[in-house]
Amino acid sequence: MSSSFCKSHHWSSEGGADAGKVVDSTAVIDSNGFGVGITTGTIIINDEIITVQTTNTLATLFTKVTTADSDLSIAYDTSTDKITLASSSGSTLDLSG
Q: Which pLDDT score is estimated for 6?
């Protein structure tokens, strides 16, 4: 399956028992309040492979994303409980990996 998202994309998911828990950007992601299970693996954004480990924090993961592609910006908004991934230059993001 292939898809491209223009400028920015928001992910949302309905989760399990920890859904609604406050997300702590300094806590390891497998014990954070995402409401879905997090596993070790990779994500591909604009042909850049980013390794995700359950021992990463959200802040560490965001640093990995922006280090892999300096055109990317990624942030977590506590007021909306959303992660936003965007291209600083306005380019189309390729999440098809």
A: 40
pTM of the full structure: 0.70
Check: CB of residue 45 under 8 Å from CB of residue 68. yes
Q: State the residue range of the domain holding 60.
A: 4-94
> How many angstroms separate the Cα of 17 from the Cα of each of 14, 31, 43, 65?
10, 12, 25, 28
Q: How many domains does the chain have?
A: 1
28 φψ region: left (φ > 0), alpha (ψ -120 to 50), beta (else): beta
What residues contact residue 89 under an 8 Å CB cut-off, 6+ apart?
A: 71
CATH number (domain holding residue 84): 3.30.70
Taking CA atoms, 53 is separated from 30, 50, 64, 95, in Å, by 9, 10, 11, 19
Q: Which two tokens stand for residue 94?
A: 């390729």
Residue pair 3/92 in contact (Cβ under 8 Å)? The answer is: no
